[in-house]
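The passage that follows is intended for readers who have already worked through the single-chain material. We present the inputs for a multi-component assembly, then the predicted structure in tokenized form, and finally a short commentary. You are encouraged to pause after the input and sketch how you expect the pieces to fit together before reading on.
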Amino acid sequence: MTGRNLITDVQNTWCPGCGNFTIQHTLKALLDGWEKEGRSLDNVVLVSGIGCHAKIADYLNINSFYSLHGRTIPVATGIKLANPDLTVICCCGDGDCYAEGLDHLVFAAKRNIDITVIVHDNRVYGLTTGQYTPTSPLGFKGKSTPSGTAELPLNPVELMLACGATFIARGYTKKMDQLKTLIREGVAHKGFSFIDVLQICATFFPAADYYTPRVYEPADHDPADFQKACLLAREWDYNSDARIALGVLYRKSMPGFGERVAVPNRTASEREQAVRDIIAARI
Amino acid sequence: MAEEREVSVLVGGRAGDGINNAGALVARLMSRLGYRIYLYFDYPSLIRGGHNFAVIRAATREVGTCREKVDFVLALNQETVTRHQGMVHDGTAFVFNADLVKSEGQGIPVKAILAAEQAPEIMGNSVMIGGFAKAAGIEWAQVEDVFRAALPKGTDLNLKVARRAYDQLAVVRKIPERGSPPLSLVTGNEAIGLGLIRGGLDAYVSYPMTPSSSLLHFLAGEKEKFGITVVHPENEIAVVLMGLGFAYAGKKAAVGTSGGGFCLMTEGLSLAGMAELPLVFVVSQRTGPSTGLPTYTGQSELQFVLHAGQGEFPRLIVAPGDAGEALAWSAIALDIAWQFQVPAFILPDKTLSEGTYSVDTAALPSREDGPAGPGRAASPSLPYRRYADMPDGVSPPAFPGTPGAVVKVNSYAHDEYGYTTEEGDMVSLMTEKRLRKQEALARAMNTFPQVNVLGKADAPVALLCWGSTKGVSAEVGDALGLRVVQPVVLEPFPTTQLRVALSGTTKLICVEENATGQLAAIASEYGIAVDEEIFRYDGRPFTYESLLAKVQEVIL
Ligand SMILES: Cc1ncc(C[n+]2csc(CCOP(=O)(O)OP(=O)(O)O)c2C)c(N)n1
Ligand code: SF4
Ligand SMILES: [Mg+2]
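Having made your guess, compare it with the prediction:
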């Protein structure tokens, strides 16, 4: 379909100032661009989890699978294996993807399945009104941890490096142009693409004043350099005070899961023959 | 024992001795003589060190259970002789590995035979089979045929060592040839896999769990031939959600597990119900609760699969009674799941999944027109409504990639387009749509013969059974002149057909391998009262004699 209105009529219920708007408009701009390039949006699928981030499935007028909390990635994996012609993008939350469904993230990276995972990392459970997530800093006072969390955050970028992800990037919702580039490159990357997006939660984690002075784009970083990528990943551990590198931190080319598990197409009669042959061989 | 109509063989050895394969060879030999076969494989949940045994029963009638006595014992270890003393009768013939076992009967010097042919140790079982064949008076040509078919590697050497044993032993108990053409031997899980393929399966996703694993192994081994994607992901949560991803993209998928793994799938099951995505769940039951007895049987997940998942939504449950039924009904389950966009269950147990049965392919319904398509709406009306409210509740499906269609599925309550809604009227409308789908599904199922009547069809006393107890119940029914009624479809519950099948009965006895009577409880919910209940819950399937005795107790 061409010339579609990419924003649906569904009433938007994100808080004013929410970083999710930036991600939505970034995706819209990319989709617009693809359509202008003659690429059909009929082949784009968005998979979302459950959380504030996930409402994007209702707001963008493209194919979507509004899944369960934590379960974007296995759905996306199934879709991609079923139809490799589809472009499959996951919009996940940090609670969604780093807590409830972390196992799937680890395995998607390990498999190098050709999907793009965008984590709306607001470092809080937004929809359930403000509990800590795996990326909340130590001591974060959420509703379930009123005296502050007692555990250090997880560094998802470092985790993805350890898991073998072949495209690792970090963006920030106050840097929309860069974010657009990152998502475009992530989608173009053949293999598993991971983009941790520092997303402002205006209501429960309004961290713009912290992020804005600290983010930077490392000059002449070579994303093929795994060691340098590890150093950049460790520079900021989502807890202590440090500079925060944005951009494509690591990129590597490797055969994808889909290619490796591909099987020949068989017609119905070939399959029926195979069934009958197997049964006949058991006499 | 009625030796002239049937014969049973016990093959026993240590875990790791290849008892299952040895049993399969014995089964094949007897199948070639024109018998119907049932093979039960008993093994503890470990890889090495325990005692394994297979009981192969060959009969002129269809069989799905074992007898308590055997006519041959093939002993690869001493335990086979000592542990199964209760299974022998005066005429039982023993064939044993003389290097390891002391017994009456005929010993075979396995080591010496292997040494004479410079054959490796793993060919020891071939020696034993050769000896058995002679003791049973089976023609050498049959042995040769079976070895050529079953052991494509090292066939000649296997035959040489088998021949030496064959020549050393004497015929002690000739198994007469039946003359009827031999049937194929297929396990329950293989039959489910083949049935799913015939139903048009595109993908099988599963995390290993006994007794479902052999289905994963079978389909993974044959995936190239069938052109199906087989995935073993990180856990059962991923399994069910990948399955739903396939379904959303228009590919027919099935997932497989046992009770514990299915626990992890329940949230995904409910999503299938809400998002109206077709998916087949193969849940092979073992003894529960929890890890239970991994390698033993049970029928305690019927109520679980019936009620699993939050909320109310239609589902199909079929419980085939043997491999032939598994082959036919697995294809139907996949068809129906797609026709009505509902989750469908195939509910075998260890007895069926890992048991080997004779399958009559002449009875295989033809699927010459190819499997029914997923019902793709060729050009859906636009703007596309994934949940268009149709009279029968079934919305025309379209899949991503369909020109012009924006295909939205949703785990939240949604409107016809798939957009989230919390509006009460819309929620009611969609609930009613799903209920109508349930009715349409029940109507469609009514066009199938969903309830088998076996035994003496007009007898006033009836056994009510489901799943793998079909075979044993049918035999007991025949022996005692009872009617045997076996619903294959358990949800939507086939009340009408069941009432017809039970009409004129004065006493209904429910036979189940659980401790609480799960089918009996469902039947009574639909107004069908069960008078007596016979349970077994030690992980072992009913043998013919054990069920016979229990039934005799309650009909006296
Ligand atoms: C299995 C399950 N557990 C809990 C919930 C409740 N729940 C909904 S959203 C959410 C957290 C959302 O946090 P996040 O993923 O970070 O998304 P955000 O709202 O911040 O975008 C939780 C716990 C649920 N829907 N499902
Ligand atoms: S709670 Fe936070 S994440 Fe959720 S909509 Fe409001 S600002 Fe956005
Ligand atoms: Mg969050």
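Commentary: The longest strand of chain B covers residues 88-97. Chain B has a mean pLDDT of 95. How closely did your sketch match?
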